[in-house]
Amino acid sequence: MQESLLGHKAQDAGSPRPPGQGGSLRGEGMDRAIKKRKFTPARIAMAVGAVVFVALIVFLVSSMADGSRLNVERSRLTISPVTRAAFQEFISVTGNVMPRTTVYLDAIEGGRVEEVYVREGEMVEEGQRILLLSNNDLQLRLMSNEAGLAEQVSNLENMRFQVEQSRLNLRQQLVEMDYQIRRLQSLHRRNEQLFEKKLISQQEYEAVRDEYEYYLRRRELTVQSHRQDSLAQELRIAQMEEAVNRMRKNFAVLQESLENLLVRAPVSGHLTMLDAEIGELRGPGSRFGQIDVLDGGYKVRSGIDEFYISRVRRDQTGRTQSIDGKVYLLVVTRVYPEVRDGRFEVDLDFVDEQPENMRRGQTIRFDLELGDPVEATLIPRGSFYQTTGGNWIYVVDPSGEFAVRRSIRIGRQNPMHYEVLEGLEPGEQVVTSSYETFGDADRLVFK
After folding, report:
1. What percentage of the chain's residues is helix, strand, coil (to nearest 5)?
2. What is the pLDDT of residue 355?
C-alpha cells in the first residue's frame, strides 16, 4: 500500500492533470510567478523632484556668481559713448543788458519840486533843464552869508587903511626927527670945538649934546615900536583875509547849491528813469533818475552762485547762446566781491561787436569759461548722476546684450559733459539715462 501511495505521488508530479479537475486548477493558480514593473509612479515622482532640485541649485549658484539681474527695454535707455576730447569747464549763466555808462541824477540840496521840464524815456542833451527845486532856507543862508562877507570885507579894508595911516604918521615923525638930529649934530660938532677952546660954557655944551642924544634914542625907539605894531597889524590883516576867503568860499558853495536847485542833464543820453512830481519834498541825496549814455555801448551784468566766487576773475571769456543766429564773445571786466542771497555779480563787455537793437534789461544767456581746455576722458551729462552721485555707472558689454555696474570717479563738469578720472576707457559705452527704477541691480539684461 505504501508503494501504491508513493507511486501515486510520483504520477501526480510527473504527468499533467487532465482538465476538469477543480482541485488541480486551484493549486496551479497559486503557484504561478508574477512579473514586477520597473517604473512605478513613486519612482517617477522622485526622479522629477531630484532634477528640479538640481536645476534650482544650479540657478542659485549662477545668480550668486553673476549678481542680481534686471531685464530692461534697451529702446528706453540712453546709451552714450566714452570719448577722449578737449574738456572746457564752463557754467551756463543768465545776465541782463545795461549801458556801459550810467549817470545818476541825485539832489545835492533838498527842496520842493517846482517844475519838471522833461519826462522819463526822452532823449536829453548835456546841460538841458530837467527839473527845478526851491529851498527857502538855502536862500536865507545865502543872504546871511553875503551880508557877513560884506561886513568882513569892510573891516579888512578899514584895517588896511589904518595900517597905511600908521605908516604915513611914522614917516612924518621920522622926517621931523631926522631934521632935528641933523641940526643938533651940526650944532653939537661946533660946540665941541668951542668948548675945547673954552669959548662956551659946559652947560650950553651939555644941553645941545643931551638934546642930540635924545633924538637919536627917540628915533630908534620909534622905529622899533612901529616895527612891532606893523607885525601885529600884518598878522591881523592876514587873519582877516583868511576869514574873508573862507566866507567867499562858503558863499560860492551856497551859490552853487542854489544853482543846483535847477537840475540839468550832466551828459547827453537816454533818460531811463525820472521820479519827481510837482510839489513833492525831497531831501538831500535823493535820487531823481538816471541817464544812460548810449554812445558808450552796452555791458552785461550777471548774478552767479557763490560756489564759483573763487573761480571767476577778470579777463575770463564767455560765449553767448545764439542771438539772431550769431554767437558773441564776452569778457569779464569787473567782479563784485559782495555776496547777496547766495550770489555775487560780475560785469562783462562785448568783444569786437555786440548785437544790434539791444535794450536795457534784455536777458542774455551765455556760457562762462572757468579755465583753459584740457584733454580728458568724457561722458555726456545724464540723469544717472542723480542716483549714483557719479560713484558708479552701468557699462555696456561689448556683446551689446547687457550692461554691468562699475565703480568710477568723476571730476569736473560742465553743462555738456562729466570728466571721468577713473573707471572708464574711451570707446566704451555707458547708460546715462535715469536709474530710478533699477534698484540695486548689478546687471541690466537688454530685451
Report:
1. 40, 30, 30
2. 87
Q: Rounded to whole angstroms, how far apart are CA atoms 326 and 255? A: 54
Q: Which three cell numbers stand for residue 9?
A: 505521488
Do residues 420 and 81 make contact, with C-beta atoms less than 8 angstroms apart?
Answer: no
pLDDT of residue 17: 47
In this structure, the dihedral spanned by the alpha carbons of residues 159, 161, 166 and 170, taken in order and rounded to 10 degrees, is: 150
Region 207-235: what's the mean pLDDT? Answer: 86
Cβ-contact 91, 308 below 8 angstroms:
yes
Query: Average pLDDT of 122-128?
Result: 92
Domains of the chain: 69-89+374-446 (2.40.420.20), 91-133+271-369 (2.40.30.170), 136-260 (1.10.287)
Cell readout for 41 is 509612479
Residue 65, φ and ψ in degrees, nearest 5: -75, -40
pTM, two decimal places = 0.51
Q: Where is average pLDDT lowest: 66-75, 262-271, 322-331, 409-418?
A: 66-75
Q: Which pLDDT does position 21 carry in this prediction?
A: 43
Alpha carbon separation from 275 to 102, 104, 106, 108, 131 (Å, rounded) = 16, 12, 11, 16, 11
